[in-house]
Design goal:
Radius of gyration: 17 Å
Shape: globular
Structural class: alpha+beta
Strand content: 15-25%
Largest sheet: 4 strands, antiparallel
Order of helices and strands: HEEEHHEEHEEHEH
Strand order of the largest sheet: 4-5-1-8
């Protein structure tokens, strides 16, 4: 099978994530991949019903709301909750979040992350997440954000986020640099109007 170039892989990822004509809930994860370390992942998490509650964009600059600032704080807090994790470029957009994250090799994982409240509860893996996996990390991040979202709203309401998340394994330096650039330029690419009549999803 012919290998897809890094640039095309990234372009295909953006098309999958942002094209409203493509399925938004279909699993695209590799069955053969553990989604643990040592790999870098590009992740995208969208707000519930794509509500633009995280930020506003003016002149290509993002101004975070109280909710968006909280999301940024929780993402940065990831490294203190899960030692060995490395964060790279990220962007809080009005209705979604992009981030690059590198997980450590399994053998280097501190025991307190492998047994963290997000990875294990009551002796089992939380919601089926594999301990110290990408899904455990994102699940914990989303749960923490939603709890603080309820505090900001002053009531226990629906989740801040859509179910699931998008991810991509970053396989080489060229792809990593292209994704960094994409994240950095995301606010400038933002379009404030729906893509098509009746389509509430915004992009990129």
């Amino acid at each position: 099978m012919r290998e897809i170039g890094a640039g095309k892989r990234v372009a295909l990822l953006y098309r999958y994530q942002m094209d409203p004509q493509l399925p938004s809930r279909s699993s695209h994860r590799l069955v053969s991949h553990s989604y643990r370390g040592p790999w870098t992942y590009f992740i995208t998490v969208c707000t519930r019903k794509r509500q633009p509650v995280l930020a506003t964009i003016e002149a290509g600059q993002a101004t975070l709301s109280a909710i968006g600032s909280m999301v940024s704080e929780e993402w940065i807090r990831t490294t203190s909750l899960r030692p060995g994790v490395t964060l790279d470029a990220y962007a809080v957009m009005p209705d979604h979040f992009h981030g690059l994250v590198t997980l450590p090799p399994d053998e280097s994982l501190p025991d307190r992350w492998a047994r963290s409240e997000y990875a294990r509860r009551g002796g089992g893996v939380a919601r089926g997440y594999r301990p110290a996996s990408l899904s455990a990390l994102i699940g914990g991040f989303k749960a923490a954000c939603t709890r603080r979202y309820w505090e900001i709203e002053g009531r226990r309401c629906e989740s801040l986020w859509q179910r699931d998340y998008h991810d991509r394994i970053v396989r080489d330096a060229d792809a990593l640099n292209q994704i960094r650039q994409y994240i950095h330029e995301n606010p400038a690419r933002w379009k404030g109007a729906p893509r098509a009549p009746g389509d509430s999803r915004r992009g990129p």
